[in-house]
Amino acid sequence: MNTKIGNKIRYRDKEKRLEKDKVYTPNQVAIDCIAHTLPFIEDTDILFEPFAGKDDFYNNFPKQNPKEWTEIDRGRDFLESNIKCDWIITNPPYSIWNNIIDKIMSCSNKGFCVLVNNLTITPLRLKYINDNEFYISFIYYFKIWKWFGYQFYYIFEKRKDKQNLLFLKSNSKSYY
User: Fold this and answer.
1) φ/ψ (deg, to 5) at 137
2) The three-state (H, E, C) secondary structure of 24-75, written as one string
3) How does pLDDT run across 14-58, given as a tens digit for each residue?
4) Quick one: DSSP state of residue 76?
5) 78-113: per-residue pLDDT in tens?
6) What b-and-e string marks burial along 31-60, b requiring 16 or more CB atoms within 10 Å of the CB?
Protein backbone atom coordinates (compact mmCIF):
# COMPACT_ATOMS: atom_id res chain seq x y z
CA MET A 1 0.00 0.00 0.00
CA ASN A 2 1.21 3.49 -0.83
CA THR A 3 2.60 4.99 2.39
CA LYS A 4 1.03 8.38 1.76
CA ILE A 5 -2.39 6.79 1.31
CA GLY A 6 -1.86 4.52 4.32
CA ASN A 7 -0.93 7.52 6.51
CA LYS A 8 -4.00 9.41 5.32
CA ILE A 9 -6.22 6.44 6.19
CA ARG A 10 -4.64 6.03 9.64
CA TYR A 11 -4.89 9.76 10.30
CA ARG A 12 -8.52 9.87 9.16
CA ASP A 13 -9.41 6.90 11.38
CA LYS A 14 -7.67 8.55 14.33
CA GLU A 15 -9.61 11.76 13.72
CA LYS A 16 -12.89 9.81 13.63
CA ARG A 17 -11.96 8.00 16.83
CA LEU A 18 -11.10 11.27 18.56
CA GLU A 19 -14.40 12.81 17.43
CA LYS A 20 -16.26 9.79 18.84
CA ASP A 21 -14.56 10.47 22.19
CA LYS A 22 -16.43 13.77 22.43
CA VAL A 23 -19.47 12.41 24.23
CA TYR A 24 -20.71 15.06 26.61
CA THR A 25 -22.27 14.16 29.93
CA PRO A 26 -25.95 15.13 30.21
CA ASN A 27 -26.39 17.68 33.00
CA GLN A 28 -28.82 15.53 35.00
CA VAL A 29 -26.37 12.61 34.89
CA ALA A 30 -23.61 14.86 36.27
CA ILE A 31 -25.94 16.08 39.04
CA ASP A 32 -26.88 12.51 40.00
CA CYS A 33 -23.26 11.28 39.93
CA ILE A 34 -22.05 14.17 42.07
CA ALA A 35 -24.86 13.50 44.56
CA HIS A 36 -23.38 10.02 45.06
CA THR A 37 -19.91 11.54 45.49
CA LEU A 38 -20.85 14.04 48.24
CA PRO A 39 -20.46 11.58 51.16
CA PHE A 40 -16.83 11.04 50.15
CA ILE A 41 -15.64 14.63 49.84
CA GLU A 42 -14.95 17.32 52.41
CA ASP A 43 -15.75 21.03 51.98
CA THR A 44 -12.08 21.92 51.60
CA ASP A 45 -11.22 19.18 49.08
CA ILE A 46 -9.96 20.44 45.72
CA LEU A 47 -12.10 19.01 42.90
CA PHE A 48 -10.74 18.68 39.38
CA GLU A 49 -12.52 17.97 36.07
CA PRO A 50 -9.72 17.12 33.58
CA PHE A 51 -12.01 16.59 30.56
CA ALA A 52 -14.47 19.40 31.18
CA GLY A 53 -16.28 19.25 27.84
CA LYS A 54 -19.35 21.45 28.35
CA ASP A 55 -18.66 21.78 32.12
CA ASP A 56 -21.57 19.62 33.29
CA PHE A 57 -19.57 18.08 36.13
CA TYR A 58 -17.55 21.23 36.86
CA ASN A 59 -20.60 23.51 37.07
CA ASN A 60 -22.29 21.12 39.50
CA PHE A 61 -19.37 20.74 41.90
CA PRO A 62 -20.31 21.92 45.40
CA LYS A 63 -19.88 25.69 45.55
CA GLN A 64 -17.79 25.62 48.75
CA ASN A 65 -15.08 23.42 47.20
CA PRO A 66 -12.06 24.82 45.37
CA LYS A 67 -12.19 23.53 41.80
CA GLU A 68 -10.02 23.19 38.70
CA TRP A 69 -10.60 22.14 35.11
CA THR A 70 -8.80 21.36 31.88
CA GLU A 71 -10.25 20.88 28.41
CA ILE A 72 -7.99 20.35 25.40
CA ASP A 73 -10.48 22.04 23.04
CA ARG A 74 -10.12 25.22 25.15
CA GLY A 75 -6.32 25.16 25.23
CA ARG A 76 -5.83 23.44 28.61
CA ASP A 77 -4.53 19.90 28.09
CA PHE A 78 -4.83 17.55 31.09
CA LEU A 79 -1.79 15.55 30.02
CA GLU A 80 0.33 18.70 30.05
CA SER A 81 -1.08 20.11 33.29
CA ASN A 82 0.53 20.00 36.73
CA ILE A 83 -2.67 20.34 38.74
CA LYS A 84 -2.84 18.44 42.01
CA CYS A 85 -6.19 17.84 43.68
CA ASP A 86 -7.99 15.76 46.24
CA TRP A 87 -10.58 14.35 43.83
CA ILE A 88 -10.89 13.99 40.06
CA ILE A 89 -14.46 13.72 38.79
CA THR A 90 -14.80 13.13 35.06
CA ASN A 91 -16.21 11.41 31.99
CA PRO A 92 -12.87 10.56 30.32
CA PRO A 93 -12.28 9.87 26.63
CA TYR A 94 -12.38 6.07 26.41
CA SER A 95 -9.95 5.67 23.50
CA ILE A 96 -7.04 7.02 25.56
CA TRP A 97 -7.95 5.37 28.90
CA ASN A 98 -4.62 3.55 29.13
CA ASN A 99 -2.77 6.83 28.53
CA ILE A 100 -4.62 8.82 31.18
CA ILE A 101 -5.14 6.47 34.12
CA ASP A 102 -1.59 6.97 35.45
CA LYS A 103 -2.00 10.73 35.30
CA ILE A 104 -5.41 10.54 37.00
CA MET A 105 -3.94 8.50 39.85
CA SER A 106 -0.86 10.71 40.23
CA CYS A 107 -2.96 13.92 40.41
CA SER A 108 -5.46 12.64 42.99
CA ASN A 109 -4.61 12.74 46.68
CA LYS A 110 -7.79 11.06 47.93
CA GLY A 111 -9.61 9.52 45.00
CA PHE A 112 -11.17 9.76 41.59
CA CYS A 113 -14.59 9.24 40.05
CA VAL A 114 -15.02 8.17 36.45
CA LEU A 115 -18.09 7.80 34.28
CA VAL A 116 -17.33 4.97 31.86
CA ASN A 117 -19.13 2.26 29.93
CA ASN A 118 -19.53 -1.33 31.04
CA LEU A 119 -16.39 -2.48 29.18
CA THR A 120 -13.86 -0.02 30.60
CA ILE A 121 -12.94 -1.34 34.06
CA THR A 122 -11.69 -4.80 33.17
CA PRO A 123 -10.22 -7.19 35.77
CA LEU A 124 -6.71 -6.35 34.54
CA ARG A 125 -7.34 -2.60 34.76
CA LEU A 126 -8.90 -2.98 38.21
CA LYS A 127 -5.83 -4.88 39.40
CA TYR A 128 -3.62 -2.11 38.03
CA ILE A 129 -5.67 0.56 39.82
CA ASN A 130 -5.58 -1.48 43.04
CA ASP A 131 -1.81 -1.93 42.69
CA ASN A 132 -1.64 1.88 42.76
CA GLU A 133 -3.56 1.88 46.07
CA PHE A 134 -6.97 3.02 44.80
CA TYR A 135 -9.99 0.85 45.54
CA ILE A 136 -13.65 0.88 44.56
CA SER A 137 -15.82 2.48 47.22
CA PHE A 138 -19.02 2.84 45.20
CA ILE A 139 -20.49 1.95 41.81
CA TYR A 140 -23.58 3.62 40.36
CA TYR A 141 -24.90 2.22 37.09
CA PHE A 142 -27.61 3.35 34.71
CA LYS A 143 -28.48 3.66 31.03
CA ILE A 144 -28.11 6.65 28.73
CA TRP A 145 -29.95 5.54 25.60
CA LYS A 146 -27.79 7.53 23.19
CA TRP A 147 -24.62 5.86 24.53
CA PHE A 148 -23.23 2.37 24.06
CA GLY A 149 -24.05 -0.21 26.73
CA TYR A 150 -24.63 0.64 30.36
CA GLN A 151 -22.80 3.44 32.10
CA PHE A 152 -20.93 2.98 35.35
CA TYR A 153 -19.87 5.75 37.69
CA TYR A 154 -17.01 4.39 39.78
CA ILE A 155 -15.75 6.07 42.93
CA PHE A 156 -12.19 4.95 43.67
CA GLU A 157 -10.49 6.10 46.84
CA LYS A 158 -7.20 5.53 48.56
CA ARG A 159 -8.25 3.07 51.24
CA LYS A 160 -6.20 1.89 54.21
CA ASP A 161 -8.02 -1.45 54.28
CA LYS A 162 -6.97 -2.10 50.65
CA GLN A 163 -10.34 -3.62 49.81
CA ASN A 164 -12.75 -3.02 46.96
CA LEU A 165 -16.18 -2.48 48.46
CA LEU A 166 -19.11 -4.09 46.76
CA PHE A 167 -21.61 -1.28 47.16
CA LEU A 168 -23.58 -1.05 43.96
CA LYS A 169 -26.53 1.20 43.22
CA SER A 170 -28.72 0.88 40.16
CA ASN A 171 -30.92 3.62 38.82
CA SER A 172 -34.25 2.46 37.45
CA LYS A 173 -34.64 5.65 35.43
CA SER A 174 -33.00 6.03 32.07
CA TYR A 175 -31.51 9.16 30.57
CA TYR A 176 -32.30 10.25 27.02
Assistant:
1) -110, -25
2) CCCHHHHHHHHHHHHHHCCCCCCEEECCCCCCCCHHHCCCCCCEEECEHHHC
3) 455 455 567 778 899 999 999 999 999 999 999 999 999 999 999
4) B
5) 999 999 999 999 999 988 888 899 999 999 999 999
6) ebbbebbeebbeeebbbbbbbbbebbbbeb
